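HUMAN: I'm a chemist; might I ask for a sequence paired with its structure tokens?

ASSISTANT:
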Amino acid sequence: MIYEMRTYDLKPRSLPEVEKRFGEAYEKRKKYSELAAFWHTEIGPLNQIIHVWGYKDLAERAKVREAAVKDGAWPPKISEFIVHQRSEIMIPFSFSPEIKPAKVGPFFEIRTYHFAGGELPTIKKNWENAIDVRLEFGPVVAVWHCEIGKVNTFQHIWPYKSLDQREEIRKKAHATGLWPAGKKAEKEGGRDYNLVMQENKIVVPSAFSPLQ
């Protein structure tokens, strides 16, 4: 399973019209494959939409996209509002759940970590060993690394009922002394992984997003 994360930066004040047109076009597009999630930014880089699509592999992605375009169902007519686009192919970690329709938000935190080259095996090992500590306090939507696009990055996406709940859960997880994942690794004789940059943003779903 792969996920394509498409991030579009929009012109100011265009978001309502973009979501309207996207939602209308999606009614035809979803017969080829359904969205995993659709968000817009609430905190962080503003005027941004993020749509996530799941595919079996790159061949299926190409087949689906070709069919949707040929049918005239895609893309949505929003090009006049787009300032910048980027697409990334993400590979889930072994424990990352499949993204399915659910109501677990409405606030989602997308944390993107840029790591030094060669650190991915250590990151995977540490997270696989420590994720159960964090899951005691709340679910995770996705943990994956970028295979095509901005390489040497991985992302983890967390749902929250409120921003206050986010603060509460993060405090509880840190209080264990075993989170973030590198803390547990160090206590067990391993090492933390080497990060070079971190960023995050809070996003909320559109009305037509299967993940709410």
